[in-house]
Amino acid sequence: TSLAALDAHLVDCRACPRLVAWREEVAATRRAAFREETYWGRPVPGFGDPGAAIVVVGLAPAAHGANRTGRMFTGDRSGDFLFAAMHRTGFANQPTSTSIDDGLTLRGIRVTAPVRCAPPANQPTVDERRRCAPYLGRELELVGGGVRVAVALGAVGWQALLTTLGEQGWAVPRPRPRFAHGAEVRLERDGDRDADGGRVLTLLGCFHVSQQNTFTGRLTPPMLDAVLLRARDLASR
Ligand code: DU
Ligand code: SF4
User: Fold this and answer.
1) I want to staple 27 with a disulfide (CB 3.0 to 4.6 A). Which of 39, 58, 76, 155 is the partner?
2) What is the CATH number of domain 3-235?
3) Can you give the residue ranges of every domain in the chain?
């Protein structure tokens, strides 16, 4: 399998009735500002460098952001904040992300999510999170070279990563480390040194880039830049 094959399978997924209904309803009704647009209205694949050593894991597509444009973090304020930071820190070729054909490319980094369909109120249920988890698991396995750093934007991504990485043989400490901004967990995995590129993976916690955090100053641009630079530092060791 390849990332392309995984994405082809993903975009046809209809496993969660509540989310299928919501993503399609939002796409059919639209928001006034986007009335003339055709919404994606389907599961959203990961985006960025297929050989990335760093993966950024958010929560789920936003109803009028990625659920509209079809690309992770694209077309809303969260994405504006995230991609501007990626551009400042040298991961993105441009600071804006508006549509799938806007020319944005990422180098050394990838953005994805543990839930691929827009949930009502940005709140997926436990069952929905469980059902969607294998897509993140497969993506982490398929990213070329092996992921060395995983940045969790918020507690949902943090929990999903710990579960998935634990299933993939990474030794997750007990009790489970708690999500916090700036939290850092070094994970190790036994096995063939040559097989997956790396035997150490670092999990980094960062407040989510939602307006709730960025408008209030809970997450500032320098804070996000610092996390991304820390990720690059760890990935290059
Ligand atoms: O067609 P492609 O080269 O596989 O690229 C698909 C998609 O991924 C395109 O929108 C650019 C993006 N991308 C990227 O951001 N960084 C890369 O290193 C390679 C591709
Ligand atoms: Fe499928 Fe995930 Fe969407 Fe559920 S959230 S329908 S598992 S892609």
Assistant:
1) 39
2) 3.40.470.10
3) 3-235
220 Cα–ligand 2 center, Å:
31
Interval between CA 48 and ligand 1 midpoint (Å):
6
**Nearest-CA residue for atom 9 of ligand 1:** 105
* Complete DSSP assignment for 84-139: HHHHHTTSBSSS---STTS---BSSEEEE-S--SPPGGG---HHHHHHHHHHHHHH
Q: Which residues contact 175 (CB under 8 A, 6 or more apart)?
A: none
Ligand 2 atom with minimal separation from the 43 CA: 8
The pLDDT tens digits for 69-79 are: 999 999 999 99
Burial of 65 (0-12, 13-18, 19+ CB in 10 A): buried
- Ligand 1: distance of its center to the CA of 189 in Å? 29
What's the pLDDT tens digit per position in 29-77? 999 999 999 999 999 999 999 999 999 999 999 999 999 999 999 999 9
pTM equals 0.96
pLDDT value for 194: 52
